[in-house]
Each structure stands twice: as C-alpha cells, then as structure tokens.
Amino acid sequence: MTFSAPYPPYDPTDTSGFSYETVVKRWPIIITGVIDHLHQTCHALSLNANAIDDSDGSGAKQVLLTKIAEGTGIIEKISKLKYEMARDRALEYLPNDAEASVAIYNTELAQLEKDNRHTWFTAPWLFAECYLYRLLRSFFLQTEHWRSYDPFYGQKIKTFQHSGTSILHLAATMHELEAETEVKSDPEKLKVLFNEMIQMCLWGNATDLSLLTHLTQADIQHLQSVGKEAQTARQQFILKDDQEAVWEHIQTLQDARIDFVLDNSGFELFTDLVFADFLVTFTPYISKVVFHPKLIPWFVSDVTPPDFKDAFSSLLDPSFFPPDVIKESGLQHLKHMVTRWSSYVARGIFSLSVPLDTPLGGNAGSTAAEFWTTPRPYWDMETEAPDLFATLNDSGLVIFKGDLNFRKLTGDVAWPAWTPFATAIGPLAGSFPLLSLRTNKADVVVGVKRDIAEKLDQSGEKWRVDGRYALISFLPRS
C-alpha cells in the first residue's frame, strides 16, 4: 500500500514560502546561467571552426558547425522554458529521449494536470524542481554532440578550486591524526574525533551552488571554516542532534559497510571522503564505503560519476588550486591522503554504487541508481526501486547528505516542525540504519522541539531556509 502523508506538499501557491521565491528568483538565475554558459561555449566553438582549413576533407569544421547549430537550438529551448516559467505556463510532457524516468515524470504530470496543479506556480515544489533538471537533461539528449555535456561542470570546478584553503587545512589535520598511533585503540579519543568529523561533514554543504550563486572566494572560505572555534559556535544551530546515538550505533558494527547518498560535488564531496577515510582508516568498525551519485546533472552541484572520478585527479594536480593558497607541505599531505583514497578505490574499500566509468545518463550497469533522479519520495523506495532498497538494507549505516535528500526523505511535505523524524519518513523508518545530515535550505523541517520551532518562527528569522541551522537525524534498524 502506498504511503500518503497527512499534510500537503510545499508549493509556490504560498507566496510567503521559499518555493515561491525559488520559482520567481532562483530558477531564473540558474537557467540564465546555463544560457550564458552555452553562448560562451558556442562562441568559442565558432572561433575554433573559423580557424580550421577544411580543404583536407577531414570534416572537422562541419562537425563543429553542426555542434554550434545544436547548441543554438538548446539555447532556444531553454530561453523558451524561462519565458514560460515566468508566465506560469503548464509543464510540458517529457519527450521519449531514451533515458530513464520519462514515464514516471509524465504519469505524475498527467495526475497533476487532472488536479489542475500542473503549472510552474501551482505544481508541488519537489516535483517541479526535479522535473526542471530532467527537462534540461532532455534538451541535451536530443542532439548528437551534447549528450554527455554537463552545463554545470565549469561552475562546480571553479567552486572546488576556491575551496583550496579549507582542503589543505583538512589534509593537514588528517596527517596529524595519522601520526597519533594510539587513536584507533582509544574509544574516548575516537568519539571526540567522530563528533568533529560529523560536524565537518554536516557543514561541508555550505557550498550548495543552486542556492549560493554569487559568492566570492572569501565568502566560500568563511562558510567552510572548519576550525574548532567555528565548530563550537555552530553547535547552537544544530536543532536536532543525534550524534551520540549515531556513535553508539557505529560502535556496534564490525567490518561493516556504510553508504553515502551523496549531495554536492567539490568541497562537500571532499569532506564526505575525509569522513569515510576516518571511519575506515582510524576506527575498527567500518571496512567498506559505497558512494551513491546522481546519473545526470542535478540541482546544479550534485555529484555525478564523472564528478567523483575527476575529484581524485583534480586533488592530485598541484596546478588545480589558485597559486595564493598553495603550501608545499599542505600539497604533500593532500597527495598522501588522496593516494590512499585511490588505493582504497582500487581495492574496493571505497566504491561508487555504479561502475566508476559510468557516463552521464548511466548505462546498463547503473539502473539501480536511476531512482535518485526521479521525483519520488524515498518512502516509495521499496516498491519503486526494490534492488536499491535491498542493497541499502545490507548496509551498516546509510548516510543521506544534504537538503534535497532530506526533502525526499520527508516527501517535502508541510509537516509540523515537531513531527518525529520516524513519522515523517513513513515506511522507510526502521528499514535500515539511517542518518540524515542536513543544513536547512527548504521549508520542510521535522524533529525539532515544539517550543524551539515556534520561537524561531516568531523571531522572523529565515531559519528554515538560510543554511544557518542544521539537523542531525538518526534512526536505527527496527
């Protein structure tokens, strides 16, 4: 029987909510960024085409001209999308582009059309946002030369490069930790370090590109501050804190596998890898970590298989970071740590849930990962993606990173903020040990004490959406 939440999903019909602001402001900025990027790319291709002498009959110039024409076609489609979004036009059915989930989206859209909730300002926020990225993907799929193109890749790389100071700081911290040989046998020290690591992993997603589109390098470094003073200051902003319960659970594990359902690439992925490294290298409890990516460009900055693979090569490239953040000792510590990670990947200690060389869009070996880019709430996982559900059921702990995963865990439903986390995730509760690490960047909040939630609501703070507050939510297997 399908679970149905007793409250409605968030949607832009509430003009005071963050979903309305998203449709009015955030999505147009993101779409405009894609259009501008494509214009620049096509201009560069034009310069290259003009420089080619095609008298040798190679056809290279014609290939570029065809790609430019296709790129121009994509720009026209995205421009039309932006125009129709601003005018609250109906969402169009996805074309049969031979990639996953078309039927899922179109079936749900047909139901929304029956309910007269199928326009940009009336559709449920979670559905419309997932649909937006799947629609953008379809524009690229309907070409010959842009099918493997990630329009957000350059943005992700640039933000990653500007995280160099924090990356080198964490590499130095891990180097110091490696020198403390007694750590693994000291439960109290492990607990302290675990708390530091989990907070680092929690706040690492301050660089969500879909929300923070105009940050300076200094802004990024400030958000990523990982010093002890910053951690202590942030403790007061964790409104639900299950760190103690998670640590108690991890101590019951032996040679276990844990899973990360990834969120953002770049610095956040780096902190996920650091956390995984700590658990595998410095504790006796975990022996394998599986990372679950998205198969298509998703919510601007989510990790795709190419992003995961490229992170290793970027971190090992001394020229990747701006010269002003380079410190030779820091680079050596980073190289040592990332080389260890590479060996873990080679030995299967670290692995993606799909083959490492999986292309954008996936292939026959990645079908279980298709669920992550559907609009479905995660409480439907057992029925919609039984193979994925069975895989996670074997895990010692499944860590869901970030805001979008939290929205999908809870269905992006207008639960009262004091609703127990176990209630809000429906039948998924108790299926496997589950940890959600989330900084608040959307209206849905659960698991907060009623008096605290009401006080924050009355304060006028944008505590549900501004990323200053966080939730660490754990549920054991029932």
> Sheet bearing the most strands, described?
7 strands, mixed
- CA distance, first residue to last residue: 20 Å
Low-confidence segments, given as residue ranges, are 205-216
Q: How many runs of DSSP E, i.e. beta strands?
A: 7
Number of helix segments?
A: 18
Q: What share of residues are in beta strands?
A: 5-15%
Q: What fraction, in percent, of the residue positions are helical?
A: 40-55%
Global structural class: alpha/beta
List the secondary-structure elements in sequence, H or E: HHHHHHHHHEHEHEHHEHHEHHEHE
Query: What kind of oligomer do you see?
Result: single chain
**Which outline best applies?**
globular
Q: What value does the Rg take, in angstroms? A: 23 Å
Strand order of the largest sheet: 1-7-6-5-2-3-4
Mean pLDDT: 92
